[in-house]
């Protein structure tokens, strides 16, 4: 298109320069005459490619070249010219459009040659007179508007078939308008259709001219936005050498994509299809443009039909013709003929020509101020044309946007082979650029017949889709469509196909085995339902019951010497505290709550101090009792029952104060431990203040060591039933349990930390219970004869 306008602008410049210097106007070059014409008050120009190719017989550059020799008749151009003629006749017969004004036409053939296109455009603008004139060269154009050309590279002011996006640039082509949508929309429609079918890895062949290069550039730009990759984009022109064509074939044969987008002309594709057939390149799914998708000649793959001299299934009488075809009689009816010349499959294309003529007529009607009649003739300009807005007889709106382009509406056509092994053009979808982005393309997939008659959408991808649970990782040095599928890491998921990244699950959730869903993490705590919880609960209850049984036995035999001799009041208080020790272990089992967390450690700390205080009191009593037996000793009056109760209360009160400070400053609280296990949440009681916890435990340890030390001092006292020995043994068990508890508590994970603490409580409680009270129960129940004062007091040696 650019060479046409460049040359046209130069010629206009020369004319203006000649005028200013008084130089006569002279027609440059040979005259060009229309193939079809009709006189009228206002003339409409038409430029079509009646022939698909051309030849230059002399290219020596020594003499002026002869006229171009046109070859290969184009049926579509003939039908397009018929559309112009039909529209002109219809307008001339109309009483409402341009009344009193007759339209005429001049239609030229360009042979698809840019040079011829420029020549006939000049002929339409300036006329064909070869006379030398002294008149001013700037005169009204011979025609008011020009329709054509089909090819973008040779198009002029208004076109029915030139789709190159470049022609929308009004700085370069201010007078160009068209009734066919720009390749900008067609490229987007093609890319959207490719994306609709999931084809992310495609090849492309483009016509090596403005139409193909510009259209493919627009397609590539849109495709990249939607992650559609071009494996190759190969230029082709019908004048390419055999070597270039061979390279194209080899490139396609070595490719892996199964879809080819063709921005080509029918004549180009005819050549390619022959070459494809020779090299057995089949099975590809083609995506075509409006330039060739409805071409009936191409559909039959029979190029020779264009050159045959036959028409309407009969042929004219020719000398020495041995063909048995019937001779035309002149009485044949067109309505009964089925041939390429009567094929109406390209009616949407011809309708663009029809709308172009009507756009010119409506513009003239408005410009001339036509009412009942049109008073004058006036040259229309492109601005006026762009403002036209009308409806056809079928109700279709025709208008131009700011770039001189119409609204883009396309039919999606599918080539389907019928029973006669011929191609039918079946509409399977629609694309309308005026709709919402998500609703522009509608396709009935079930009605599509695919390449090689397969019944499902062909697959054309560089890499298969990454399923949920994986993410895409682009292969090094390859397009984004070529990737590996990397499984998501633990704790991450992807729940869509072709995810580019894995999403991290929230902290209370974890990825499932398939890594496509976040599931709530399993919560772990020591519960009453599990085996460990049941066993520990059972031991705690058994311990409490045994303690209560011993309490009952002691209460029943409280008058016996063995009970009275070992301080029955402290024994009852000790048994009560041991019962609480067994029961407080139950607060460690079950789902941690705010109250259970505060209760479990404080109850444990206070009850154990109460227990050890009682044992400590009994130990002190033993020491004091033997010192009281010495002559003149009055020690017992200083540690009688009131002092014993006060000591127990004082020792316990200190622990109570420690616990109150702990709870006041930083109490224990329920806590979700996410660090031990990745896929589990450990519900535990956070200590709050570690100092508080270890202060409670340390105070218990201090009292236990003090008790052990005092009992150790009383171990050799001469009583037959010296309780200090049993207290020593119980304190050894107590200290051993809690010393081993510390490393086990620190190193045990999750619920086992709680289990270790419960085990320490139960083990130390059972140790105290059995070591201190089991021997007494043995004598009370099984050896009652030893339960006498005489048996309890043996020979005492005073040092």
Task: Describe this protein with a few key phrases.
single chain; about 800 residues; alpha/beta; four-stranded mixed β-sheet; 20 helices; rod-shaped; G protein-coupled receptor activity; GPCR_3_Ca_sens_rcpt-rel
Please give a quick description of this structure.
By secondary structure, the chain is an alpha/beta fold. Helices cover 42% and strands 15% of the residues.
Structural class: alpha/beta
Percent of sequence in beta strands: 15-25%
Overall residue-averaged pLDDT value: 78
- Major β-sheet annotation: 4 strands, mixed
Q: What is the CA–CA distance across the termini?
A: 133 Å
Indicate the radius of gyration in whole angstroms: 53 Å
Helical content band: 40-55%
Estimate the global geometry from the Cα principal axes.
rod-shaped
Beta-strand segment tally: 26
Strand order of the largest sheet: 1-5-2-6
SS summary, helix count: 20
Spans of at least 5 consecutive residues with low confidence: 1-22, 302-311, 313-322, 795-799
Q: What do these coordinates show?
A:
The chain is of the alpha/beta class and 799 residues long. 42% of the residues lie in helices and 15% in strands. Strands 1-5-2-6 form a 4-stranded mixed beta sheet, sandwiched between helices. A 4-stranded parallel beta sheet has the order 10-9-11-12, with helices on both faces. Strands 15-16-17 form a 3-stranded antiparallel beta sheet. Helix 14 (568-584) runs antiparallel to helix 15 (594-628). The protein is rod-shaped and about 160 Å long. The N and C termini lie far apart (133 Å). Residues 1-22, 302-311, 313-322 and 795-799 have low confidence and may be disordered.
């Amino acid at each position: 298109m650019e060479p046409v306008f460049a040359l046209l602008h130069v010629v206009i410049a020369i004319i203006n320069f000649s005028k200013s210097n008084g130089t006569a106007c002279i027609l440059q070059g040979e005259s060009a005459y229309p193939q079809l014409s009709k006189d009228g008050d206002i003339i409409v120009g038409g430029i079509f490619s009646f022939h698909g190719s051309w030849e230059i017989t002399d290219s020596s550059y020594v003499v002026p070249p002869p006229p171009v020799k046109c070859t290969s008749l184009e049926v579509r151009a003939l039908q397009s010219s018929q559309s112009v003629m039909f529209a002109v006749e219809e307008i001339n017969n109309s009483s409402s459009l341009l009344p009193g004004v007759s339209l005429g036409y001049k239609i030229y053939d360009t042979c698809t040659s840019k040079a011829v296109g420029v020549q006939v455009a000049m002929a339409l603008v300036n006329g064909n007179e070869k006379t030398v004139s002294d008149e001013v060269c700037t005169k009204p154009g011979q025609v008011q508007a020009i329709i054509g050309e089909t090819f973008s590279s040779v198009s002029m002011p208004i076109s029915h078939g030139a789709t190159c996006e470049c022609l929308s640039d009004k700085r370069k082509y201010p007078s160009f308008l068209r009734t066919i949508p720009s390749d900008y929309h067609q490229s987007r429609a093609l890319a959207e259709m490719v994306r609709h079918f999931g084809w992310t890895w495609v090849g492309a062949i483009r016509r090596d001219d403005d139409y193909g290069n510009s259209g493919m550039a627009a397609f590539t730009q849109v495709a990249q936005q939607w992650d559609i990759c071009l494996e190759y984009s190969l230029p082709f022109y019908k004048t390419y050498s055999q070597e270039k064509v061979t390279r194209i074939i080899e490139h396609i044969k070595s490719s892996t994509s199964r879809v080819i987008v063709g921005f080509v002309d029918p004549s180009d594709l005819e050549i390619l299809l022959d070459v494809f057939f020779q090299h057995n390149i089949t099975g590809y799914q083609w995506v075509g443009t409006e330039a060739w998708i409805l071409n009936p000649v191409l559909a039959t793959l029979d190029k020779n039909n264009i050159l045959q001299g036959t028409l309407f299934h009969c042929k004219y009488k020719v000398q020495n013709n041995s063909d048995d075809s019937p001779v035309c009689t002149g009485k044949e009816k067109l309505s009964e003929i089925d041939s390429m010349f009567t094929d109406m499959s390209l009616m949407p294309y011809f309708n663009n020509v029809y709308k172009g003529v009507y756009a010119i007529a409506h513009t003239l009607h408005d410009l001339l101020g036509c009412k009942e009649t049109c008073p004058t003739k006036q040259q229309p300009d492109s601005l006026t044309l762009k403002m036209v807005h009308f409806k056809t007889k079928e109700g279709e709106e025709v208008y131009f946007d700011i770039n001189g382009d119409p609204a883009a509406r396309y039919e999606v056509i599918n080539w389907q082979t019928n029973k006669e092994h011929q191609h039918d053009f079946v509409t399977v979808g629609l694309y309308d650029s005026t709709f919402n982005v998500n609703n522009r393309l509608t396709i009935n997939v079930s009605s599509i017949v695919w390449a090689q008659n397969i019944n499902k959408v062909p697959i054309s991808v560089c890499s298969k889709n990454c399923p949920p649970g994986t993410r895409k990782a682009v292969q090094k040095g390859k397009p984004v469509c070529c990737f590996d599928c990397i499984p998501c890491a633990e704790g991450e998921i992807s729940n869509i196909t072709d995810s580019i990244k894995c999403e991290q699950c929230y902290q209370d959730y974890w990825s499932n085995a398939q890594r496509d869903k976040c599931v709530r993490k399993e919560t772990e705590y020591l519960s009453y339902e599990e085996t460990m919880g049941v066993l520990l609960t059972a031991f705690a209850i058994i311990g409490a019951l045994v303690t209560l049984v011993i309490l009952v036995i002691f209460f029943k035999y409280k008058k016996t010497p063995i009970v009275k001799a070992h301080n029955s009041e402290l024994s009852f208080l000790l048994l009560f505290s041991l019962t609480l020790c067994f029961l407080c272990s139950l607060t460690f089992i079950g789902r941690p709550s705010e109250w259970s967390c505060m209760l479990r450690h404080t109850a444990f700390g206070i009850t154990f101090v109460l227990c050890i205080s009682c044992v400590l009191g009994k130990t002190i009593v033993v020491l004091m009792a033997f010192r009281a037996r010495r002559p003149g000793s009055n020690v017992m009056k200083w540690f009688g029952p009131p002092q014993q109760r006060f000591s127990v209360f004082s020792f316990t009160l200190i622990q109570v104060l420690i616990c109150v400070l702990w709870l006041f400053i930083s109490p224990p609280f329920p806590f979700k431990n996410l660090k031990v296990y990745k896929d589990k949440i450990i519900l535990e009681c956070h200590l709050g203040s570690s100092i508080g916890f270890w202060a409670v435990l340390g105070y218990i340890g201090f009292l236990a060591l003090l008790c052990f030390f005092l009992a150790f001092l009383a171990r050799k006292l001469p009583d037959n039933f010296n309780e200090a020995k049993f207290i020593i043994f119980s304190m050894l068990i107590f200290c051993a349990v809690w010393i081993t508890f510390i490393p086990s508590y620190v190193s045990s994970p999750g619920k086992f930390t709680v289990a270790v603490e419960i085990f320490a409580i139960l083990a130390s409680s059972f140790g105290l219970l059995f070591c201190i009270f089991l021997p007494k129960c043995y004598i009370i129940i099984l050896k009652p004869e030893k339960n006498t004062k005489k048996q309890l007091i043996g020979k005492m040696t005073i040092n």
